[in-house]
Amino acid sequence: MLPFSLEPNAELVDPGLTAVLDWFRQADPDGSRMARVYRETFDQLYDGQRTGRYRWDQLYKTEKTHYGTLIEINLQREFKFDDGLVMDYQIAGHEIDCKYSASAQWMLPPESIDHLILGSVASDVKSTWSIGLVRATPENRNVGTNRDRKGSLSALGKSRIQWLFKDALMQPNILLQLPEDQVARIFAPKSGQARVNELFRVATNMRISRNIIATVAQQNDFMKRVRENGGARSTLRAEGYLILGGDYSSQTAVARALGCIVPEPGELVSVRVSPVDYLVDNSVELDGQLWRRIEHGHDSRAVAPKVVSQ
Hints:
The protein is of the alpha+beta class. The protein folds into two domains: 5-169, DNA mismatch repair MutH/Restriction endonuclease, type II (ECO RV Endonuclease, Chain A); 176-294, Arc Repressor Mutant, subunit A (Orthogonal Bundle), CATH 1.10.10.10. Helices cover 33% and strands 22% of the residues. The chain has helices at 15-27, 32-46, 48-51, 61-79, 155-159, 174-177, 180-187, 192-202, 210-217, 232-237, 249-258, and strands spanning 5-6, 12-13, 82-83, 89-91, 94-100, 116-123, 128-135, 162-169, 208-209, 241-245, 267-276, 283-286, 289-294. The strands form three sheets. A six-stranded mixed sheet has the order 3-4-5-6-7-8. The radius of gyration is 24 Å and the shape is elongated. The termini are far apart. This is Restriction endonuclease.
C-alpha cells in the first residue's frame, strides 16, 4: 500500500511528505542553514583562494555536474540526516532522494518511484535558491526513453511540489554584482594586498564575505590583508575609508548610523566618510568628530577615524 491516498474530490493526502516538511520547518524555520549550504557549496566549487574563480561559467563541465553531489553531501553534513536504505537519506523515517538541477529539471531513476524527492535549484547570479518536496508517483513522473529509464517530473508533478523555500536569498557574490570593468580593476594588480585594497575602494556599501577576500587575495593569510598595520584598513583610512566588520556590535552600530549596508557576522563593509561640522543624515560621531557617508565621485581629503572592535 502506498503511504498516501487520493480521495474523491480531494487534494492528495501524503502524511510522509507532511512529516518531512514539518521536520525541516523545525530544523531550519527561516532557511538560514540551507542558505549557508548553497553559498558555501558554490564557493567550495569555485575554490577561489587557489584559483581566483568566482563565476559558474569559469568551471569545467565536470565540475558543474559535481555541484549536485556536493549539495547532497553538504546538506547531510549540516542536518545530520541518516543514510537511506534505498535512497540518499532517511528523514523523519522516510526515504528521500536528493536532486539538484540548475534548471529544476530533476532526473528521477526508476528506483525513486513512490519515494519522496528533495529537489533544489540555485542561482549565484541572482543570489537565490529554492528547495521543495514532491513524491515521484507514476502520474507525477514522465517515463524516460533512454536505457536507464530516468524521467523528469510531469507538469502535474511540478504543480504538486511543496516548496519549503522558493527564490530565497543567500549571501551575495559581489563579484557578480559589480560591473565587469570594476572587477577587472580589482584583479589587475599583481600583489594580493593591492587587489584587496582595490576591492575595498571599488565595492563600497556592499556585503564583502571572507570568501570574496580570499578569492581576490589568493593567499593563505588573506584576512591579514584587511587588518591594521599594513592592511587595507590602515592604507585606506588615509583615503577616507572605514572598513566595518559584522562580528563587532560597535562597528555594525556605526554602519547603521552612516546609513550603509550593515554587515552580517563574517562580513565586512567598506564606506567612505568625510568630516562635517554639524549633525546631518547618515552621520556619526567618532573620536570627537562628526562624520558622514559620501558616495563615489565625492572627494574626501580627511583621514578616516579608527573604529574600535568593541
